[in-house]
Amino acid sequence: MGKHVLLVEDELNIIEAIRFLLTREGFQVDTHSNGTDASETVRALKPDLVVLDVMLPGKSGFDILEELRGHEQTADLPVLMLTARGQSRDREMAEKAGVSRFMTKPFSNAEVLTAVRDLLYVHQKKG
Amino acid sequence: MTSVNILIAVCLAYVSILFLVAFIAERAGTQGRGDWLLRSPLVYTLSLSIYCTAWTFYGAVGNAARSGLEYVTIYLGPSLVILGWWWILRRLVRIGRSHKVTSIADLISSRFGKSNTLAIVVTIMAVITVTPYIALQLQSVTLSLSFFAAAEQGVDVSTIDAEAAAFWIAVGLAVFTVLFGTRNLNVNERHHGVVIAVAVEAVVKLLALLAVGFFVVWGLAGGISETLARIDASDLGRWQTDSSRWATLTFLSAAAFLCLPRMFQVMIVENDDERHLQIASWAFPLYLMLMSLFVVPIAVIGLDVLPEGSNPDLFVLSLPLSEGREGLAMLSFLGGFSSATSMVIVATLALSTMVSNHLVMPVFLYRHRDGASQSGDVRETVILARRLSIMGIISLGYVYYKMSGGSGALTAIGLISFAGVAQFLPAMIGGILWRGATRYGALSGLIIGFVLWVFTMLLPSFGPGAVLSAETFETGLLGLGLLRPQALFGIEGLDPMVHAVFWSLLLNVSAFVAVSLFTFPNPMERLQGAQFVNVFEHSGQARGWNASVAESEDLMIMAQRILGAQEARHLFASQARAQGLTGSLPEPTPDFLQRLERELAGSVGAATAHAMISQIVGGTSVSVHDLMAVADESAQMLEYSSKLEAQSRELSQTAAQLREANTKLVQLSAQKDEFLSQISHELRTPMTSIRSFSEILRDTKGMGPIEKAKYANIIHVEAIRLTRLLNDLLDLSVLENGQVTLNKQTGTLSELLDRALATAQASSSRDLKINRRHVNETIMLDTDLDRLSQVFINLITNAQKYCAAPHPELTIEVNDLGGVISIDFLDNGLGIPKDARELLFEKFSRIGAQDSNGAGLGLAICREIMSRLGGDITYLAQAKGTAFRVVLPQSKALAAQ
């Protein structure tokens, strides 16, 4: 059974693309498309990794990340953050909030896969 | 031979004439007549001639016969002062007048905070220093009288018993001065009678000396050329001139001219008009020149003609007498008598003023604290004090005459006085020019200078063995070699006079400056110092109150008006407490009035405060000058405050503008950042899908045709989205920058709506029911129809996309609102949440981000377009669903038919 990845993203086409990529590599992928109850969903589904968008309806990715880090269960959960805003300030905010890896859209598929594998591998070794 | 009795009779007659002149002048003065003479610069200049006493009348010739041209220095000093130091004199006169100064003691004490100690010290010093001078007059009159007596009896002068004569002359002078000087009590008033008598005497002594001179040159020598020849032949020109003595003498006579109490009296206290100084500045040197014109001829001829051993001090008398010119000798005697009496009168007058004001009255007032309010008592006391001091001062002169043996040369005695009064110079000049001078500085300088003068000049003048023992002269005070009276600190070989002046003034000035620098003036000193030093900047008004008639209640009422009731009550009560009174109203003492004036000045300005108090005190009525000052002050204050107000208004306006600009800049900067982030997001999102799926298509082997088609379609849709986004951005940018050119066309609203609906529905698969009332739509439009259509399409498309009703409907309503027409687009959805409405027309604002195709630029573009077309687009809050209203001005819409 592959590792469990939760994708929190509101752009349908991007969900489609990432799901395709990760499923093809053998990961088990769930998706969630609004920010309001994202951190509850994470705690409920207990994924091995979260891929998190920044601009989400209801709640921003930064706030969700802070909620995750503030919760015991998800404090160490690897989070890969994706954003289309692309300002350096966003990267700083993400790092401050405790992101595991930060990537700017558009990305190459290979990059995303490498990042996901790295995060899961490092996390596994640590855990 | 003129008998001494006739001489005395002539003197009495002369004095009676002087009395008459003085009496008439005084009467005229009080009646305001004869001002052309009494207050003329001529009389002022002549009165200054009391500088020329018997010492100069007799002594100048004596000095010339003994020491050559040295006598010139005595005339040189005053001439230099009045010509070159005119500005100092003017300053002194202005201070004297504005502060109602009565004497030099008053001036110095007043300058240094009205210090009583200083007044007493200066008074005592003045009495002691002037005493030899009075003795000098006594000696000269005695000498001249004895000379006549000796001539009458045909014996030598030295055999005459001069002491008895001197005593009776002293008594006569005292009576004379008492009668002259104390008829009139008020020293603040000027003594017009005395001044005019002095002026008459000035004329007499000048005429007498000139007459003797003419007689000597033309009667004895036989003309000018012969006189000059005899002068050349004499020893006079060969006298050694000691330059240090010359410089010292010139300086001393200059200092004495300023500091002698009698000079201060006529020059400053009796001055009627500052401008008189200008005339005196050339007329007085001229008078001095005439006085000295025949000094050398008389001395030379006297030495030639008269027997060896004749007293050169008496050449003026003995020369005419030796030739049997008794009338001329009599005139000459009267000249000398005039010189002596005028000096004694004015000098004792000035001194008695100081003594009674600064020594007697303070003691009297202290001992009669309760009775002092009865003015009669005080007037009597003052007159008595004056008369007693006059007698006392002349007695002192007599005692000095007796002690010094009546033998010294006139010049030497005069110089002792000069050096004594010169000690006042540092405190006086320093006081009016230097604000930093303090009372302790003045006091130390005066005392040190005075002590040194006494030790090095006054006491030695009695001769070795009289006061100071001969050993003291030889080995110094207490056997200390450094303290020899004529060789202080081991400096020997100087002329005793130069030595004394040098040391006393050097240490006087040093102490004055050093102590002043190390002490701080008290507030009163500061105030007075500032007024004295800046006398020309201050108004000519005397600042001092003399009010016994002032009503404290009136003052209270006025003060309440200006300071406010509470403050005024507080001030008055505290002052009353300070005065030791139980009530809440203080006595209107000068101090209190001055304090009150200062308080009021803080509120209404100095000139106003002064005018207000003088109105109530009544002592001085408000002058036009005061009122002008009030007006000036108020105008300046008004102008200043309105200027300040304008400035502060301007400043706060600028500050507000700056704040506004700053806020705007911050907002703009945040907007720009946000805008860039938004654009970035809108561009990157479709690009992400495109890149990702293109890679998937490229890299995935064995993909089925259905999947391939699906992914290719996603790429296609996203590429279109990108294109549309770029178009919108460009469109908006063009609209916002106002670079758009409107393409005006005409058409009906109905047709335009038809076209818009067709276009919108073609690009959407979603069903939307449209409700229209075509009747109202028959409106002719004359505007950019394409742009307007763009707005309509946008609104219809939004309804298609976002209307959440199960059976979405859109109602289009057209209304004529009078002046404008409105086109409303209402759907049956949920409407837009209240908090989101504000941002509705902003760029990139999206209500719910579910639909990924809109970048949030549509409504922003609509708003820009409507604003270009002269209309507007708004959200209708009162509608149930989502509702937009497009408004067009009537002018753009022509009614069909």
From TrEMBL, chain A:
Response regulatory domain residues: 4-120
SUPFAM superfamilies found in the cross-reference section: CheY-like
GO molecular function: DNA binding
Keywords: DNA-binding, Phosphoprotein, Transcription, Transcription regulation, Two-component regulatory system
CDD domains: REC_OmpR
Highest taxon listed in the record's lineage: Bacteria
4-aspartylphosphate carried by residues: 53
GO BP annotations listed: phosphorelay signal transduction system
Any one Pfam family match given in the protein's UniProt record, by short name: Response_reg
PROSITE patterns, per the entry: RESPONSE_REGULATORY
UniProt-listed PANTHER family: PROTEIN PILG, STRESS RESPONSE REGULATOR PROTEIN 1
Annotated protein name in UniProt: Response regulator receiver protein, CheY like protein
Biological classification of the source: Bacteria, Pseudomonadati, Pseudomonadota, Alphaproteobacteria, Rhodobacterales
UniProtKB/TrEMBL annotation, chain B:
Protein's UniProt keywords contain Transport: no
Ranges of residues in domain Histidine kinase: 678-892
SUPFAM superfamilies for the chain: ATPase domain of HSP90 chaperone/DNA topoisomerase II/histidine kinase, Homodimeric domain of signal transducing histidine kinase
Coiled-coil residue spans: 641-678
Cellular compartment(s): Membrane
Keywords: Coiled coil, Kinase, Membrane, Phosphoprotein, Transferase, Transmembrane, Transmembrane helix, Two-component regulatory system
Membrane disposition: Multi-pass membrane protein
Record flagged with keyword Kinase: yes
Main location: membrane
InterPro entries for this protein: HATPase_C_sf, HATPase_dom, His_kinase_dom, HisK_dim/P_dom, HisK_dim/P_sf, Na/Glc_symporter_sf, Na/solute_symporter, Sensor_HK_Regulatory
EC number assigned by the record: 2.7.13.3
GO molecular function: phosphorelay sensor kinase activity; transmembrane transporter activity
Catalytic activity, reaction form: ATP + protein L-histidine = ADP + protein N-phospho-L-histidine
Gene Ontology CC annotations of this record: membrane
Chain segments annotated as transmembrane: 6-25, 37-60, 72-89, 117-136, 165-182, 194-221, 246-264, 284-307, 327-360, 381-401, 407-433, 440-459, 500-520
PANTHER family cross-referenced by the UniProt entry: SENSOR HISTIDINE KINASE RCSC (PTHR43711:SF26), TWO-COMPONENT HISTIDINE KINASE (PTHR43711)
Protein family per UniProt: Belongs to the sodium:solute symporter (SSF) (TC 2.A.21) family.
Protein name, UniProt field: histidine kinase
Organism: Roseobacter litoralis (strain ATCC 49566 / DSM 6996 / JCM 21268 / NBRC 15278 / OCh 149)
